[in-house]
Amino acid sequence: xxxxxxxxxxxxxxxxxxxxxxxxxxxxxxxxxxxxxxxxxxxxxxxxxxxxxxxxxxxxxxxxxxxxxxxxxxxxxxxxxxxxxxxxxxxxxxxxxxxxxx
Length: 102
Description:
Blueprint (H helix, E strand, L loop, with lengths): L1 H19 L7 E5 L8 E3 L2 E4 H12 L10 E4 L4 E3 L4 E4 L4 E7 L1
Parallel strand pairs: 1-7
Antiparallel strand pairs: 1-2, 3-6, 4-5, 4-7
C-alpha cells in the first residue's frame, strides 16, 4: 500500500514539473544557463547538433575550449541528457527549453 502511494505521488510530481517547465512563450529552442545575468540562447529554425549548441553556449559563458566538454545539454521536462551527436531539427512548431549544465 505504501509503495503504491509513493508511486502515485511521484507520478503527480512528474506531471506538474513537465507542464510547468515549458512555458507557453517558448518558441524554437532555448538554452538557459546557471548564471541569471546571462541571457539565454534562442534558435528559431534550422538543424543543429548538440555539440554545435554546446560550443555556442560555452562561448556565451566564456568557458574555455579545454573545459567545455565537461558540459552538456539537459532537458528538465523529460529528464534527458543529450549526446554531442544528437541532432535538433527546429521548426515553427518546436518548443524546447534546455539547460547548459556540467
